[in-house]
Specification:
By secondary structure, the chain is α/β, with parallel strands linked by helices. Helix content is about 65%, strand content about 10%. It has 3 domains: about 200 residues, ABC transporter transmembrane region fold, CATH 1.20.1560.10; about 110 residues; about 240 residues, Rossmann fold (3-Layer(aba) Sandwich), CATH 3.40.50.300. The chain contains 21 helices and 10 strands. The strands form 2 sheets. A 6-stranded mixed β-sheet has the order 6-7-8-3-9-10, sandwiched between helices. Bound molecules: adenosine-5'-diphosphate (ADP) and magnesium ion. Adenosine-5'-diphosphate binds next to strand 1 and helix 13.
């Protein structure tokens, strides 16, 4: 399944073959979720069958009690009726106890399935490559984890219970009817025809209705999440009014599609009740005539009437099951779609060990395109010797960040290879790769937790001393100490709020602690103001010592610490040399540099 296929699912339009594939995919997922629970499922099945049989026994016992026990009692023999009453109590108690057990058992199964599914979705979306996350919006991922899993939970918690109990109940009643009086059984069967027609009509119409409500509710969630995650931009660009309009439209379409579904129920429910009552009237009429004619015992008629009344109750519940089944099936389809997404960058089959990376980076005939229609890097060769500090400059869209993402293997090249110390990145163990190559970007992200925990991400087993050393090395120590709880300040709590520049310093300390052979800074200093940039500049020299570094920077002041400058335009290196040589020349960098010098005066 491609990423585009997943987007299609959100709209709910696909061909027959695709639908079949999607259904199979959901069933596979369901199978893999249930297979570890087979024994529990079987036990639960046995319990529910016995408990339903016990519950259905009631009317048959009443029939026996009236037709056999009552005449015997009138004749002075109380034993038969006492036996029937005892059996009635016994089956009643068994039914109640077993149904209680069944409720517990089925709840355990549904919890186990859900926990498994929740974990799988989380771990899998976390593992998926950047490519997936860049096209699959956070709103939709949140919808998978919340409303979709809720739909599945609802199905497992109540829907399946109702279906299993309801269907068994109807089947046992039919059997009991035939055993009691087969003619009445046939009449009951005749009423299955209108019941089937009505249910089928409801199924066909509700399928469409439910799909529309689900699409509408998913759109609501996506719009909401995206407004809130982009709230800064919303406020900055005064987009509130437009958002309000869009949201109102979505709410209205949600309301309208829900209204349609409710109208369907408005026909279906009364229809069921009507069928049940007509069936009861027919049984009473035909059975009554037979009782009068002496061909039917009165107790059997009562039993038949009680069964007929009960027979149609579960039909309503089964119809409700259809409701939750529909949303759960669609949810399962979407969740299984996410789970079958393969990471765009696959783990190597036989990883090459690289314990001590030197830091030689080589692009060998690399071609790269995000989408097939537009090549970003056309045949690219580049060699960066270990220990070299490279400044990569060029206009916006030149492909600098793309180059950085290829070195850190967020993407794989379409052809050619990116190598570290002569090993294709695709053959490196992900652990070795992440230890050897670290990229720091402008959006330095802090996770909830303390400052020192955030720095320790670079090296999970680091001691407090190492953390402080790292912070000192990049010049972050002073401001961290000034925080309310120093290194133990929670970055999300009041008073723990750190500025963009301070966040960047923390991410530098994290990178320093990780001590990678190759460090990439993609506009990492762009969010710093001039004083903090100067502060970082000093830390940067420490950070870059003894390793290969690629610095992508707006401000040319950073270039001074580089051994080599690469100027990139339209996916190609157009200039390559030491800063001194390039400045002395007449190329693009010399012009840029001259303009920059001018601006400083
Ligand atoms: N995830 C993406 N999907 C499709 N195109 C992209 C993606 N990221 C960047 N691009 C395109 O690739 C080109 C190079 O982008 P980038 O490497 O970010 O440039 P730079 O960092 O030099 O500004 C741009 O034309 C940009 O539109
Ligand atoms: Mg960029």
């Amino acid at each position: 399944m491609s990423v585009h296929g997943v987007q299609g699912e959100e709209r709910g339009d696909y061909t027959k073959a695709e639908s079949r594939q999607i259904r199979q995919r959901s069933l596979r997922l369901l199978g893999s979720l249930l297979s570890p629970l087979v024994r529990r499922v079987v036990l639960t099945g046995v319990v529910v069958v016995i408990s339903t049989a016990a519950q259905v026994a009631g009317p048959a016992l009443i029939a026996i009690g009236i037709d056999r026990g009552l005449p015997a009692l009138i004749d002075g023999d109380a034993l038969p009726i006492a036996l029937v009453v005892a059996a009635y109590l016994f089956t009643g108690i068994i039914g109640a106890v077993l149904i209680a057990w069944y409720t517990v058992l089925s709840a355990r199964i549904s919890q186990a399935v859900l926990i498994d599914l929740r974990k799988r979705v989380f771990l899998h979306t976390q593992k998926l490559s950047l490519e997936f996350h860049e096209s699959y919006t956070s709103g939709r991922i949140i919808a998978r984890q919340t409303s979709d899993l809720d739909a599945i939970r609802e199905l497992l918690d109540s829907g399946v219970n109702q279906l299993v109990q309801g269907a068994l109940y109807m089947a046992f009643i039919a059997i009991a009817m035939f055993a009691l009086d087969w003619r009445s059984g046939l009449i009951l069967f005749a009423f299955l025809i209108p019941l089937g027609v009505l249910t089928r009509w409801f199924q066909v119409n509700s399928q469409r209705g439910f799909r529309l409500t689900r699409v509408a509710s998913a759109r609501l969630i996506v719009q909401f999440v995206e407004t809130m995650t982009g709230i800064r931009a919303v406020k900055a660009f005064r987009k509130e009014a437009r958002n309000e309009e869009e949201y109102a439209e979505l709410v209205e379409s949600y309301r309208a599609s829900n209204g349609r579904v409710i109208r369907l129920f408005g026909i279906f429910d009364p229809g069921l009740i009507l069928i049940g009552n007509v069936a009861l009237a027919a049984m009473l009429l035909l059975g009554g005539l037979r009782v009068a004619g002496g061909s039917l015992e009165i107790g059997v008629l009562l039993g038949v009437l009680l069964y007929t009344r009960q027979f149609f109750f579960p039909a309503q519940e089964i119809a409700m099951f259809y409701n939750s089944y529909q949303s759960a099936a669609a949810a399962l389809e979407k969740v299984s779609g996410v789970l079958e997404e393969r990471p765009g960058v696959a783990d190597p089959v036989a990883p090459v060990d690289l314990w001590e990376a030197k830091g030689d980076v080589r692009f060998d005939g690399v071609e790269f395109a995000y989408t097939e229609d537009r090549v970003i890097l056309p045949r690219f060769d580049l060699e960066i010797a270990a220990g070299q500090v490279i400044a990569l400059v060029g206009s916006t869209g030149a492909g600098k960040s793309t180059l950085a993402k290829l070195i850190s293997r967020f993407y794989d090249p379409s052809s050619g290879a990116v190598e570290l110390d002569g090993v294709d990145l695709r053959d490196l163990h992900p652990k070795d790769l992440r230890r050897a190559i670290v990229m720091v970007t402008q959006e330095a992200y802090l996770f909830s937790g303390t400052v020192s925990e955030n720095i320790a991400l670079g090296k999970p087993d680091a001691s407090h001393d190492e953390i402080v050393q790292a912070a000192m090395a990049v010049g972050a120590h002073e401001f961290i100490q000034a925080l309310p709880d120093g290194y133990d300040t929670d970055v999300n709590k009041r008073g723990g709020r750190v500025s963009a520049g301070q966040r960047q310093l923390i991410s530098f300390a994290r990178a320093f602690l990780a001590d990678p052979a190759v460090l990439i800074l993609d506009e990492a200093t762009a969010s710093l103001d001039i004083p903090s940039e100067r502060l970082v500049q000093e830390g940067l020299t420490t950070l870059l010592a003894r390793r290969t570094a690629v610095i992508i920077a707006h401000r040319l002041s950073t270039v001074a610490i580089a051994d080599r400058v690469l100027v990139m335009e339209h996916g190609r290196i157009v200039e390559d040399g030491t800063p001194r040589d390039l400045i002395a020349g007449t190329g693009r960098f010399a012009q840029l540099h001259a303009a920059w010098r001018e601006s400083l005066v």
